[in-house]
Write a structure and sequence with these properties.
mainly alpha; single chain; 0% strand
């Protein structure tokens, strides 16, 4: 995926996912935080498995499990919007993110950082929509920076 495509994907994620978390934060936040907490526990457990062997040595199956658990967190936020158009957009983004990860592989291990950033989103949801948006934007921007770094090491 060319650098400009990568940037466009992250621009789209920033806009769509910030809006999704803002909309979700206006609903049943306690139930959403509970679902996200469960998903985050699962993601953290897989991240621990990755850390135990090291990302460079982790099997393709283990990394695929981590990426699925990572996206499940985002999907729960899209689902909480109860907006079929946003849910459809999430499917498109999922496909593109998966393709990006296939192309830009072999980067650094960001599993712990992703879990930490997701936890910040869950915590921010307890405060309010604006804080949740800020936490999601921080997360997407951090992933963007890590992806740029990974892409520069693989090109």
């Amino acid at each position: 995926m060319a650098g400009d495509q990568l940037e466009a994907l992250f621009d789209a994620r920033l806009i769509v996912e910030s809006g999704a978390v803002e909309l979700a934060a206006r609903g049943d936040v306690d139930a959403l935080r509970e679902r996200l907490g469960t998903a985050l526990d699962e993601q953290a457990a897989v991240a621990d498995e990755v850390a135990a062997v090291g990302a460079a040595e982790a099997s393709e199956e283990l990394m695929a499990r981590f990426f699925r658990s990572d996206w499940q967190f985002h999907q729960l936020i899209f689902d909480a919007t109860r907006n079929p158009f946003l849910e459809e957009m999430s499917e498109i983004i999922t496909t593109r993110v998966h393709r990006m990860r296939q192309i830009v592989e072999g980067g650094g291990d960001d599993t712990d950082r992703a879990v930490h950033e997701h936890r910040a989103v869950v915590d921010a949801l307890a405060v309010g929509p604006a804080e949740a948006v800020a936490a999601m934007r921080h997360h997407i921007d951090a992933v963007r920076l890590r992806s740029r770094e990974d892409a520069s090491h693989t090109s």
